Amino acid sequence: MIRATTGGVLRNYRTNLMNSFIRDNKARETVLTQRVFNSYAEDPAAAAKAFRLRKSRMQASSQLDVCRDTWHKYQGAYACLQKVSELIDTENGSDLATLKDATLKWLNDPTGDARTQLSKVLDNLSDTIIQNMNQTYGDDFIFAGADGQNVPFEVKDVDGHKQLYYRGVPVDAAVPKVLEDGTGAAVKVDDNGNIDPAGENYLSADAELTEAPKLVQDQGGQTLMVDANGNLTHDTTGTSYLLGGTPTLTQDEFDAAKAAGEDPNSFTSYTDADGTGRFIRKSDIVSMSQDEYQEIQNNVMTDGTGQPYVLTKDGKDYYVTKNDDNVIAKADYDKSCEDVEKLDYLMKEKRFVDIGLGLQEDENGKLIESSAFNEALNGLTFLGYGLDEDGDPKNVYSIVQRLKEISESVPSGGEWTTEVYDEFHRLVGKLETAADQYKTQFTNQSAATTKLESSVGLLEDNVYNLKEQYSELEDVNMADAITSFIWAEYCYNAALKVGNSILSQSLMDYLQ
Amino acid sequence: MSTMGTFDAFTSARLGIYAAQHGLRVTGNNVSNINTVGYTRQRLDQVSFKAGAYDRYRSQLDNHVGSGALVMSINQVRDPYLDVRYRNVSADVGYHDKMLDGLNHIQSILDEVNKGEDAGDNEKGDGILHAQIQDLRDKLLAFSKEPTVSNNNLVRTSASILCGMFNDYARRLDTLYQETVEDFNSQVTEINECLTNIRDLNREIRDCEIYGDNALELRDERNRQIDALSHYLHIKVIYTEEDVGCGQKVEKLSIYLDDENPDPKMRTDDSMLIDGVFGSQLTVPEERVVLNPYFGSDVAGLEGVKNFLYLTDQPLEDPNDPTKFLYLLEDGTVGSYDPTDATTPIPDGATAIMQGTNFVEDAAKVDNDIFAVEISKLLDVNNKEWTERKSQYDDVGDDAFTNYEIELTLPGATDRADGKTLTVGERVFTFKDNPTGADEISSGISDAELTDLIARNLYNSDYTVRAHPDTAAKPTTLVFTARQPGSAAALAAQGIGQPGVTIDADGTALNATFMGMSQDGKDLPANEKDDDTGVETLYSYVKYGNEWKQVTTTVKHTYEVALDDNDTRGSLQAVRELLTENGQFTTKDTVANVDENAASKRGIPYYQKSLDLLAREFAKQYNQLNQGFAVDHKGNYLQDTGKVDEDGKPIYKPLPDCTTPLTYWVDADGNFAGFTNPGTAGAKEVTATLNRDMSASAKEAFEAHYKAQNGGADYPNGIDSYLEKFGISMGGPLFSTRNDNNETEGITAGNISVSQGWTDDVFGLVPKFELLFGGDLDHSTQNTNADHMVTMIDKGLVYNPQDIVPDAVSSSMFTGDFGDMFSRINTVLGQDIRANQIDLNNSYIQQVEIDTNRDGVSGVDLNDEAMNMMQYQKAMNAAMRMMTVVDEVLDRLINNTGVAGR
């Protein structure tokens, strides 16, 4: 600069004074707001990061709420399950063990009073179990799976029996076992009660099979009958039918028997369809009277032509004894199948919540299950459902109800028969099995509760850490901020002082 | 020794006193103006004065002495180089200052740092929109847990608040936009004031200079105006000399734009703004969007167009035939016309239907594209147009020109029968055997008389007309000779066309024969005019003796210049960019043809569109999530059987196509390949049923299957059409363009609203689309769709600018969730602000430094002036002392000399 003019010096001073004032103001603002930056422009990267951390903190807080909520729900579930566990525990000192001992004592109760008491205890026990399994947490039913707003377990009176329903589905539902023919195909029954492949109804596997009598025919196709003398007749004059199980001799064997001295009149004979001569000792004849044969014919199921239906299985022919109770209507069959399908669906049902596992969906919008927590507590998981291979219910409630019904089945004053006792004892064994299953699930649930508890702790730490992280980004170190402010103010004051000296002196002041 | 004037010394002293007095006046003036903005320090231009001359034969002892000091002039002390630097950097300061100002305003709207209410967890600073998005998430979470009416309403309230925030941000950005438009117009006005002031000052300074005045104060004012102008525009200032005649030259100041455009082909960026007494003005052509006058009208025929969005004021196309345009008849019916078909004109009384916009707020907007600035022609204070004319004489040789001639043969005697006509210009003559009127010619007229008659009628200033000299061979031929040399084209360029007549006889055209015009067989140049630059090149010919000279005169005119996008810099350009730059929303056409860097420039429209994109994507995702068709637990779409079970619950069952397989072919990669064997390697036949979770190929197959039904008439939209017809539709759009409709097209941040359907509880949030086992099984807390809605808040989405501007240059702006996108908008804004802040600081420091340097040259310094005061005071005292001394000496000489001995 060749010349430093008054105006130029003043302009420079003004600019620098303004800069000093801006710095002073900025330092003051930093102290007042206690923040490192007050806009994206001051530090775009830090501001964006701080917002991400804040969003994470808000989500972690939300997840913490959900996790706490779920944890408390699980704690409630634990209490309920603990109570039920105590009820069905078979260990010494437990309710069920006491019940078991009492039952054994009451078996020979001559008056039946104790059995009445037993029935009531069993009834109460089953009701208590269901009451516990219908507990709520807040407005939601704990053990309702993914249907928390509706009561899960419901007991209905079906044909005088207490039937347990879970979310509208009978818990003892099972696909009915149906009668199958030799090829494994279900035997179908039409609406007229005839066995007909085109029919839609089914026949229970419990249907009684009677081995079909095998009649013998001669070379001319005539059914052989036996007369009163034990001789075969080739017409309908005989009194009974020759059955296929009758031992026969060939010509050579017959000749050998004669040579051995047997009376030829003690034999009768016929020519079979192959043209082979067959000899029968009259004493060996196996036959069935016409009445007996007709009786059988009348009590078996027929096909569409009115002929008895013959079920061939394992090389044998059977008649199916006529019994309407064994016919399963299609609608009932389908209903049972659907019920089973529903139960299977319900057992797989899940209700996912975000407890900080990274809740995420795949590209098709499906939740990635490992990124969320399945909070659904399905009551059937604990109590069991369906029937076992013996046809007994696997559900605790249903077993107890069966026990109760057995107990009630013996009339007052009557004694337990061995069969009843065995049945009762067998079912107690099933109850123990169901209780074991219950305990296993209870243990799993306890583990989940513990996991939730630890998740709550982790999320609390996470929220705190996130606050720490964005606090580090956003919040000033007050010592630094105040020092900077004091320094900025000092500089500003100094600048003001300099200004005073600039304006005060020039050669003009020294002119005489 | 030469003679010496007795009183010469008095003159010297007097001139010294004058000079010192002037010096003191200049010093006083400088001190007085020390605080005058733009004042330039003045300096006395003083020279030594000597009267008389040396004699050729003077005595060697005759020594001449000077006669004192003369004040030649008073000048300014100024460094033009510093002015150039100052004005260059001033444009930078203006640009960054204004840009930063605009960006800061955007920041004040969008930036949520340290904003937001205390949510009760002692956590301030969670933001406003950010926090509201999280609030919506929380409400959706509660709805997912318990999909009750109450929770639905809570979500709706939260969504409504969010929409309100979008609306508020958009409205404030729009207000900012309007304010910036006003700022832009205001800047144009200020620039025009500067230009007018400079032009007028130029004229005053010119006048002063002609009269010998330096007009220093006017120059100061002009410099101040130029400095102000340099803040708005990047300019260069050029000083030249103008010959005003009589050998006198005065200074001429011209101002141009300073070649800012990086595209070397662009010439508009050095357009002239000021040239001496001529000055231009900036203009901004305005085209406002007009309101569609038929919006919502019940006029028959407009059903298809009345709800369209139109952005121009062009005629409205017929929606049924884009080659036609609509008109409205007096009876209220609508018709259309084909502008290329003259046989079907617009009926009398019909009015054209113009395009417009359906949005009142748009109607108030000025189209972004029209912020292109135009520079007007240069006019002086009397509105006389600037021209620059330069002539040059070229010798074109001694050969005589043959003038341009045309021969025209009139009808012969056989064509002059009674009743035949002859049209000459506007006059129509009729041959008559017995002529009676002035326009009747005797059919027996001789050839000579006829040629003479017509020649007299055709005589004009451009041509001479005479009968052909060879009357024997061409008795009825007229010869037209141009009055100046040149070819037909050259003459036509000067407005001298063919003889302005048409001659025909009874409808038979008479052919004129062009004799040609040339010099030595070459065509002479025609006058030219460059339509782009307006420069005219005129040719004329002057004959000196026998020698012809070609006079080529170049006449430059100024013309209106439409500035290109990057033709200038400064605060005006900053405001233009704030109003026009779209960043990644810039169209491909703009990048290709206007500014290749446009995609990286961001103004208010970029932030408006970014916010629109966020709002539209948000609405799109939630509208999609809340609309669908009921499915069973296996994903089969359900239909209502119309029956109810014993509990009164409706019975639903899968649609037929959900259980009947469709057979189609896929290629080796599993892609749908049609319904017949494509015959390619690896192709195979597969089957699939209609299902929500079906494979991509199955979905494609079903789409094709439905669209093929009845030529596409049955199911024009494929699966959707089928499901709409037979399925069970659930939910509806949650967000629309207005609170009182369910329109989802064209959602922006400014109009996003909770839809009418949701508001009026026509539909609510759909917690799930699954009806397990046809609705037999309830699952009240397994709300999969509500869960999707929750996860959607944090889902990474691709934000595509082409969703807002279909031909935008970028198809992927950002990938992230809603909050991230909003954060991204702010981050970009923050980075832009930082970059501008740094640039502004740098350029401002430079400006201050240069200004200080300039002040070092041109500024008044008190110490300097004090020194000058003392110096001139002493000089004046000395001159006065000198006068006293001379007076005393002369007194002695005159009064006291020769008195000895008295």
* Terminus-to-terminus distance of chain B: 31 Å
Q: What structural class do you assign from the helix and strand content of chain B? A: alpha+beta
Widest β-sheet, arrangement of strands of chain A: 10-9-11-14
CATH topology call of the domain at 58-175 and 351-357 and 378-465 in chain A: f41 fragment of flagellin, N-terminal domain
Q: Indicate the overall shape of chain B.
A: flat
Poorly predicted runs of chain B are 305-312, 358-366, 511-522
What name goes with the CATH superfamily of the domain at 58-175 and 351-357 and 378-465 in chain A? f41 fragment of flagellin, N-terminal domain
Based on the coordinates given, report the CATH architecture of the domain at 58-175 and 351-357 and 378-465 in chain A: Up-down Bundle
* Helical residue percent band of chain A: 40-55%
Features of the shown structure:
heterodimer, A: 512 residues, alpha+beta, f41 fragment of flagellin, N-terminal domain, 3-stranded antiparallel beta sheet, 12% strand, B: 902 residues, 36% helix
Describe the model.
- The complex is a heterodimer of chains A (512) and B (902).
- Chain A is α+β, with helices and mostly antiparallel strands and 512 residues long.
- Among the domains of chain A are: 58-175 and 351-357 and 378-465, f41 fragment of flagellin, N-terminal domain, CATH 1.20.1330.10; 209-322, no CATH class.
- Chain A is 48% helix and 12% strand.
- Chain A has helices spanning 6-33, 44-88, 95-106, 113-133, 251-259, 290-298, 330-348, 379-383, 396-409, 418-474, 478-504, and strands spanning 136-137, 140-141, 153-158, 161-166, 169-170, 188-189, 201-203, 209-211, 225-226, 232-233, 240-242, 267-271, 277-281, 287-289, 310-313, 316-320, 327-328, 352-353, 373-374.
- Chain A has a four-stranded antiparallel sheet with strand order 10-9-11-14. A three-stranded antiparallel sheet of chain A has the order 3-4-5.
- The longest helix of chain A has 57 residues, at 418-474.
- Chain A is elongated and about 185 Å long.
- Helices cover 36% and strands 19% of the residues of chain B.
- In chain B, strands 17-16-15-20-21 form a five-stranded mixed sheet, with helices on one face. Chain B has a four-stranded antiparallel sheet with strand order 3-4-5-6.
- In chain B, a hairpin with a 6-residue loop joins strand 23 and strand 24.
- The radius of gyration of chain B is 45 Å and the shape is flat.
- The model of chain B is unreliable at 305-312, 358-366 and 511-522 (pLDDT under 50).
- Chains A and B meet through helix 1, helix 2 and helix 7 of A and helix 3, helix 16, helix 17 and helix 18 of B.
